[in-house]
Design a protein that fits this description.
Elements (H helix, E strand, L loop, with lengths): L1 E4 L8 H15 L8 H9 L3 E6 L2 E11 L4 E9 L8 H16 L4 E6 L2 H10 L2 E3 L8 H5 L7 H6 L8 E5 L1 H26 L4 H19 L1
Parallel strand pairs: 4-5
Antiparallel strand pairs: 1-2, 2-3, 3-4, 5-7, 6-7
Helix pairs in contact: 1-2, 3-4
Length: 221
Amino acid sequence: MEIVVANKSHTKYAQLICDTIEESAKVRGTGIAKRTPEYIISKLEKNHAVIALDGEKFAGFCYIEAWSHGKYVAHSGLIVHPDFRNIGLAKTLKKKIFDYSLELYPDAKVFGITTGLAVMKINYELGYRPVTFSELTDDPTFWNGCQTCKNFDILTRTERKMCLCTGMLYDPKEKKAKEEEAAKNVAEDSKKEKIKDHPFNVKVLMRLKKIKQALFLKKKK
């Protein structure tokens, strides 16, 4: 099994990718935005996707979308062919596209909306957090992409505030702040431990001071 950044040589899989996405949605009975082969091909040609292949056989796929001039990034079309399910491929694909998108857009907020519990779990493990739709991109192009979903009327009625999908967000700035705070706490704890364990810590110095004072005062008397 090989997972690679997709390119125009993979356009022969475009129709199969679309069919697999649609069939999967029907089986699960969930709403999903339909993709066209032309749209998938545009992602392949831009190298904005990853594809899993077992030899020449299609196994899985996921692509990148950028919104609001690259301030937001989404991973869409995550799909695993039925012949390769239940082996952890979806998680591997998601990790691959996640890392790749951060290479392309290191400062972008990565988000997604999904009804799938498995995808939510994967997102959570990657550092996403559940958010309201107001924290996601306000780019109308993204939301217009939901028009082919059977639940689009819910999104419209709520003025894009909620739907059956759950919004999840990964903010690299938040992650960096948490890492810096954790590093600071580790440094402070390490410093405390050194002071505690050092043979000349504060308590020892205080004892030496008292001994000196006692000796000097005794000699003085």
